[in-house]
Amino acid sequence: QVQVVESGGGLVQPGGSLRLSCVVLGRVFSIGAMYWYRQAPGKQRELVASIMNTGMTTYSDSVKGRFTISRDNAKNTAFLQMNNMKPEDTAVYYCNVGVSTTPGRINAYWGQGTQVTVSS
């Protein structure tokens, strides 16, 4: 019943900005941690940023200072604000969310991914 839906991907020029959204749909009791991953062609999927339900955040070294993860708990949504984007940011970006559909049980759900391309 739970779905994770990403949006906001697209084409952006180097130095530009893009904001990704990740909304959790369905029967949700509560949401725990929310994560953004990315996977470039020929590379393994990597964790880009995470945000706990407390608001505590972490970032990979490659995006630190440029990307910001946030969440809107009232809307069951996570965001990834990407600034000063570089060609190496080109990847499919995935949202992963810990969701409780009943009290005491948390499962991880993946979004379908959204393509981000940084190119001039």
Average pLDDT taken over every residue: 96
| Residues in helix, % | under 10%
Decide which structural class fits the backbone.
Answer: mainly beta
What's the end-to-end separation, in Å?
40 Å
Number of helices: 0
Q: Tell me about the largest β-sheet.
A: 7 strands, mixed
Radius of gyration: 14 Å
Count the beta strands: 11
Order of helices and strands: EEEEEEEEEEE
Low-confidence stretches: none
- What portion of the residues fall into strands of 2 or more residues? over 45%
Shape: elongated
Structure write-up:
This protein has no helices and 11 strands. By secondary structure, it is an all-beta fold. Strands 2, 4, 5, 6, 9, 10 and 11 form a 7-stranded mixed beta sheet that branches. It has a 4-stranded antiparallel beta sheet with strand order 1-3-8-7, with no helix packed on it. A hairpin with a 6-residue loop joins strand 4 (30-39) and strand 5 (46-51). The model has no long low-confidence stretch (mean pLDDT 96).
